[in-house]
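User: I'm writing a tutorial on reading structure tokens. Could you give me a worked example: one chain, its sequence, then its tokens, then a sentence or two explaining what the tokens reveal?
Assistant: Sure. Here is the example chain.
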Amino acid sequence: MSATDAARGLEAHEPITDEELALAARNHGMPLEGMRYDVTPTGLHYLLIHFDIPAADAETWSIEIGGRVARPLRLSVGDLRARPAVTMPVTMECAGNGRARLEPRPLSQAWLDEAIGTGEWTGTSLAPILEEAGVEADAVEVVFRGADHGVQGEIEQDYERSLSIADATRDEVILAYELNGHPLPPQHGFPVRLLVPGWYGMTSVKWLRSITVVAEPFDGFQMWAYRLRQHEEEEGTPVTRMMPRALMIPPGFPDFFTRKRTVDAGVITLEGRAWSGWGSVTRVEVSVDGGEAWTDAGLAEPQGAHGWRAWTYEWTAEPGAHELLVRATDEAGNVQPSEQPWNEHGFSNNVVQRVPVLVRSSMTD
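And here are its predicted structure tokens:
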């Protein structure tokens, strides 16, 4: 494979690579039937680990807060737990969710639709910590460094991301130490991680080691890597908040290999979840004829300010082959597209889900 192929991806007909298989063995998505749970069981929540899971001891772990602050701090896990606690459901999605469907396929973790999960996260708000440290007047960003270390883009690095001062000091941004009522599992950032509701998952730095306030925009590799661009040499635009997405729990039962669904004719309740990082989902529409016509689904109350929203739709299924689609609209007016624009690394994909279903007239057909 040439360097150009590795950077830009492969044609759709070319096989998955050994490197992609190795990533798939380390990372996993949430089976879509997991959307039946309001809060995703920890073991079903999607997982992406850039490098290795660091060794960590909660008793000795500390986070350094420094840079352009008047009073540098060092906080232990115990110090964080002693502060006022916040618990909230937060839907998280990988920025590369859906990239495996792009043509040509960008080479990375080959997600389809399953890189999602809604956890109940507990931690303490970051804003009071920064206020206590005393952010200097010339500060523009906050840099978060994790303990995970490796090589990406031929650069040896710790995983680091930054937020503007305004984004870092939003009330909902927390330093999380529990998931679903238990200490963070090692793979989810034990003992402490950043949690940034509404943004794609790459923002929520795991295994958090330091918080550094800086007077110039941070240009580390992970800030450059997560940008929407058509060509590698373009500056592109940053990947930030999750675009609206609705997903359906595939109805009926699957074929083991193809995952094609079979259901019996009659009234079937279709259901799933929808979310957006740009505000509440205000509409979910379902098509049972491949996108020719759309009908509104029923919406449950939102699951908090940052969790997904359940939807249901009653479908009178008639015998034959059908293609079911679902799409979401958020309060900012963003609507899921029917066709997904291509970009260099396959980010921010929110094309409508398509579920092929065979409806049989009876269980014996």
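What the tokens reveal: Residues 18-26 form the longest helix (9 residues). Confidence is low (pLDDT under 50) at residues 1-12.
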